[in-house]
Amino acid sequence: MVDLTSDLGEDVDETNAPTCAACGEPIIQEPTHRVVTRIEDGIATHTHFCDDACRATWNDKSN
Q: What is the pTM of this model?
């Protein structure tokens, strides 16, 4: 998995790129990449999106 603190796109290919939770596409060098981070049972979880449009269509089941 990609180091989430580094710039996305640095040494990232489809095999280790995060996938968009809405459309399922690998997120490679997307300048509009969005991440929703939550703490669940004391563990940080990260949900990745290609852009704001995918983020807006995602059905967050935790709400």
A: 0.71
Any residues with CB less than 8 A from the CB of 47 and at least 6 apart, and which?
21, 35, 36, 37, 38, 58
Q: Give the angle 4-36-38 at the CA atoms, nearest 5°.
A: 95
Task: Yes or no: say if 1 and 13 are a contact pair by the CB < 8 Å rule.
Answer: no
User: What is the per-residue pLDDT across 8-55, written as a single tens digit (0 to 9) for each?
Assistant: 556 677 788 889 999 999 988 778 889 999 998 999 999 999 999 999
Structure tokens at 50: 């290609």
- Cα 38 to Cα 14: distance, rounded to the nearest angstrom: 25
Angle (CA) 33 62 12, round 5°: 25
